[in-house]
Amino acid sequence: MMTGPIVVGVDGSPTAQRAAAKARDLARRLEVPLHVVSAHTDATIEHVNSGSDQWVVSGADNALYIAESVVKGLRTPGMKIQAGSAQGKPAEALIDYAEKVGAEMIVVGNQRMRGAKRVLGSVANSVSHNATCDVYIANTYVQ
């Protein structure tokens, strides 16, 4: 029986939203926590001035904002759903995050796995070949 969390990767796209909804449904049925994670490759910090205020913005902030936005749409009473961000290329960041939290499953969408685009590779393809836990590839194509 699965007891560790499920991790799902999101990037703000409609297909990622569909993968996240499927991950939520799996986590609810299995009664395990769900981590919604967005990757960022930018380690730089940008300073933005607005009048007398100065804001510090980073790639991590943007990634976390995306994950938190998805979590708001997934909220289900009685479920533990957490937003997170991870630095690196999407597949590597997702795998690293999953290992860090002891995830037993990573859920990814099947975007870019059909036709000519599949030759170029995809996050789902990379995760499925390199993850140390189970991987669920959700059908996110609109029928």
UniProtKB/TrEMBL annotation:
InterPro entries: Rossmann-like_a/b/a_fold, Universal_stress_UspA, UspA. Residues 2-137 form the UspA domain. Pfam families: Usp. CDD domains: USP-like. Coiled coil: none annotated. Belongs to the universal stress protein A family. PANTHER family: STRESS RESPONSE PROTEIN NHAX, UNIVERSAL STRESS PROTEIN UP12. This is Nucleotide-binding universal stress UspA family protein. It comes from Nesterenkonia sandarakina.
